Amino acid sequence: MRLLAALSWTAAALLILATVSADTRSRSPFVEVCGMSLCVSGRGFTIHGGTAYGQYDNPVAEVALAKQAGLNVLEIVEYETRHHELSDAMSEATWTRVDDFIAVAKANGLRVILNFSSYGQSLQASGIKPTTADWRPFLSFVTNRVNTKTGIQYSAEPAIAMYELLGEIDAPNYDNATRGTTAETTAFFRRTLAQLKALDPNHLVSSGGMSYINDPDSGIDWQKIMAEVNNDACDVEINSLPDRNISVPSVSSYCRGIGKPWFLAAWSACQGPKTGPHDIDHWPAGDPDMATHALDMYQVERNAHPAGPAPAVAAVGSDFWNLAATGTCALGPAYPQTFAVVERYAAKPAPPIPAPRK
Questions:
Q1: What Pfam families does UniProt report for this protein, alphabetically (predicted)?
Q2: Is residue 349 part of a domain?
């Protein structure tokens, strides 16, 4: 009887702990992985985003355009004040500008993704191989930074939805002087994802959008990288027909098998000449064809395309390159048919962002 009573008390205690733990998760103001989806405060969350490339000096206008489009996320990428200069990667000039952008986005109910790819490119521009460099000082600088506009440390900021490390990483078997080997590339993601998670356990962390998955001879061991325990989502980009027709089905199927969601980390619709037979980023006819392509990307993302090939499961969202009023790759009012597609697929308005946990 004593043994049964002890077991009963143990079971009850475990049930209470599980209930408290689940309740804590459901109230978290941070974006979290919930099965094959994302959630915030226990409610589903789909990323309907665009990159803010080149728009960091006027965050008010960029955020207003995002709200007009119905976006709920802006991706901060290539944000340095001096392009690919390593000395500017942790400068106050760069990060006060990022501070301001995050503060304006947050005040308007939007979240941001911080993409660190340009740090890797700054390392390359200095002749340093990004896959063998130690990123911990940079990651520590970012996660411990206190936003000069909000007074909140980055690691405690719910308006940050996710960090992406290094998108479009160089393929080990392609010709680039600062590329890593297959072993170095895989070890880089294992080491650096773990460092970032240790520095900031509140936020989602991913490798960044993968390219070259359609090429079995690229040397990228993408399955091992995506299976890393600290890689929260399987990020893939669509920049070509093989990306769309081979990479997306492969990634979504593999990641469904290991229980991880996938994210369409980047797609583009630019006015300009084709660069090759598989290019689906550029459209010489402009707006009408760009709009058709944008519709195709959203249908692929949401596993709603009337014809294959299709992903194995819907993505947790997507980001397009980029949101701006003008520019040949800028999805905005300058391309009204394309912009209308973005608006049509707008996510439900983002809920107010709660205060950070104490």
A1: Cellulase (PF00150)
A2: no
Q: Tens digit of pLDDT per residue, the chain (358 long)?
A: 443 344 344 444 444 334 434 444 458 999 999 999 999 998 999 999 999 999 999 999 999 999 999 999 999 999 999 999 999 999 999 999 999 999 999 999 999 999 999 999 999 999 999 999 999 999 999 999 999 999 999 999 999 999 999 999 999 999 989 999 999 999 999 999 999 999 999 999 999 999 999 999 999 999 999 999 999 999 999 999 999 999 999 999 999 999 999 999 999 999 999 999 999 999 999 999 999 999 999 999 999 888 877 888 999 999 999 999 999 999 999 999 999 999 999 864 544 555 544 4
CATH code of the domain covering residue 139: 3.20.20.80
Q: Are 15 and 344 in contact (CB under 8 A)?
A: no
Spatial separation of the C-alpha atoms in residues 37 and 60, rounded to whole Å: 30
Report which of 33, 32, 70 is spatially closest to residue 49, judged by C-alpha positions: 70
**Residue 171 structural domain:** 29-344
Based on the structure, what is the number of domains in the chain? 1
Determine, yes or no, domain membership for 41: yes
The answer to whether residue 92 is domain-embedded is: yes
- Assess if residue 350 is contained within a domain: no
